What does this fold into?
Amino acid sequence: MSKIVCDLKKCSGCLACVIACIDQHYDETAEHPVSCRLYEKVTAPSGMVCYKTKSCLHCENAACMAACPMDVFERSQNGFVVAVRRDDCVGCRKCKAACPHNIPLFDAENKIVKCDGCATRVACGLEPACVRACNTGCLKLELD
Amino acid sequence: MKYDELLAAKIPGEESGIEVKTGICGFCGGKCFVDVYCKDGKVVKIEGNKTMPGANGRICVKGAAMKQALYNPKRLLYPMKRVGERGEGKFERISWDEAYSTIAEKLNASKEKYGADSTLFYVGHPKWFRYQMTELANSYGTCNMGSESSTCAYAIMLANQATYGKGIRIMMPDLRRAKVLVAWAANVLHTNPVTQGSNLINAIDRGMKLIVVDPRCTPTSELAHIHLRPLPGTDGALALGMARVIITENLQNQEYIDKYTLGYEEYKEYVMQFTPERVEELTGVPKEDMIAAARLLGENAPFPIMTTASPLVHNINGVQNVRAINLLLALTGSFGVPGGCMAPGPGRAMLKDTFMGPSKERVHPELDLSHEEFPAWAKINYHEIQIIRLADYIEQENGIKSILSFGMNHHMWPRVDRVEKAFDKLDFFVSADIYMTDTCKYADIVLPVQPSLERDQIEMLGLDTLYFHEHVVEPAGEAKSDMDILAGIADKMGLQIGDENPIHSNEDFMNKILTPTGLTLEELKASPNHMLKSKHVMPGRSSEQILSVKTPSGKIEFTSSVLASCNKAGHDALPIYHDFREQLPLDQYPLILSTGSRKPQLFHSRTYRMSWLTDLENYPLVEIHPSDAEKYGLKEGDLVDLTTPVGSMDFVLCENAGTLKGTVNIYHGAGEKDINYIMDDNYLDPISGFPGFKSYCCRLEKKER
It folds into this structure.
């Protein structure tokens, strides 16, 4: 399965990937868009407080797909789990409960927001937006 | 693939109608190349460029939010005149011609009535036309021409020039050849991840060792082999202590010292006062760590020291602290040599009359308003006024009556409220800017300026390649290039920019700056990719040439001749350490307040108008160490009153274990919650006039919500 992996040791918490994801998926009038890359504050042993990011790993046996009662997800040809029937999402959050990494997010309309691996970009030979932006090389695309 | 799919994923190509254009971001001073995805003339997406010389494909968090900067509702679109009270923000659209005519009439009348020196000419952000602004000021006849650099980079440049002579600005580290680097108050992984951050990571990957000096724990300090955490403002004592270790262990480069420097014996005698025990007491840095760092440097010299524009000089002993730091280069023979700072290198092409070139001199600089108070400034930074006392200069008799400003942000100065009150007393105030800023709200006339992506410009890439950056998108509304506005004002007033070849437009400017390269704008525009090699390149400089320094003595000066000549002002020739705490009422304000460090998503006030960036965290934050929070009965998320000797404001508390114990760290520029409202405007470095932003004092008390 294809996925975007993050080498946390290399991540500097610069947040470029978070905004690159928003830039890819929204236009500027979206005041409070939801980025598919999640970030959380982490304190290093030194005391350094920094953000670390994570996102969907497009698992081989994707629990979210199995859990969704509305059949929102589909595996893209290049191996990403994509919420292709997002309009059908009822916001039940069963996918989130099933996800071992607690990844799925929901927007103001209670519809799922989840990484699609920038599947169309990848199909066209481009990198996912977050990988393209990454400043330390910690984000990598692993293609199926 | 279907059209809708291509469009939704913003895939460039004929099918989607999305075109990728090359542009220069221009958000900060980094000038990173970006790929701008445009559809029907509008930017739909941005990413880092991979194909231009020196570009690595990356983009920072600020650049990635470019759409929100470019299409921001606060953009100024037309010239406007104020119709409400100053500060109220009520304006009415006027034509460019009316704007120019009003400016000409008012500035000429002001000159007639009060003399030309009563008008301040000022450049903030962007900076690239500063040379021509000085020409305009000269043509008008005022010596009072200043810039944001008088709170940013000019103090470190003053310190470096007082030691290493004219022409030295910020010391450039030779990252490619260094065995060990000191990053002194530089968190490049967050401030400039695209270029400086990746260069640093590459150098470490090839085996370079890193010493970071920073009170805070940062991603950059995480990469360090040794991390020293001095109390902000005590950096001078730390450097002098390291010098003592180097000298007592005989690691200094005596041959270099004998040949190239002045005043070593006096310096050595002074340095001996800084025993490891005393330095630990002053700085809080464990002496073992300080000694280990000094040894690592002494044993691996030459080495470079990476500094940035302002953190070290935002202290009331800032200039001397920087002198103490950068004299470690002279002590170890690390200046002007490969692997050190200001290393010899190949020749490069030159542009004429640009911001990065030699500065333009002013008319009668000895009459400027800061001349008497800051004599060392007047000798070294003679091309501009130190404008830190703007509020006083407006309030005083025979002071400033009118201001012509480009990109002025009065939030950068301490006691913002005093500046705002002073603005009320102005006869006339012009503010040209990209956005309707808080400063614009006080102006009589506001003029809309093009940001980088809307502007034609010439850039030098690498050592000898010239590049014509064609505007990527059409200007918003009637926004113009700063240069076209300057020229418009000059022409209307009968003034002149440029010497033998007057500049009447941005095109004239681009043609003029190209002259030393032997290229014309026309051929550059016609060339493939808008890029050509310069026909003329200056010869490279050898170590011997770099070491023929332009100080009064011709030597690198441990004892600065320029500072010694300001003895009436009490400046010391040696890099004497004065502890800022002696001047502060620490019994009532026990926490050291440090402002102005960066988060990746913050750049002064610029990013606060972009919701994508401000949504990333709650603002404004005040950070303290968890143990201090406990000590003062506070916890994460509390609303706290932060009180300094000049005022009080409330902020949300954030516990951060990377903050040095005993200090409070706060980010600046947050509009009404700008910490500068309560920073003392008399708490200044007497040499540079720089405010003590990094080491002031405060107390915190819980506030009921």
Notes: The longest strand of chain A covers residues 38-43.
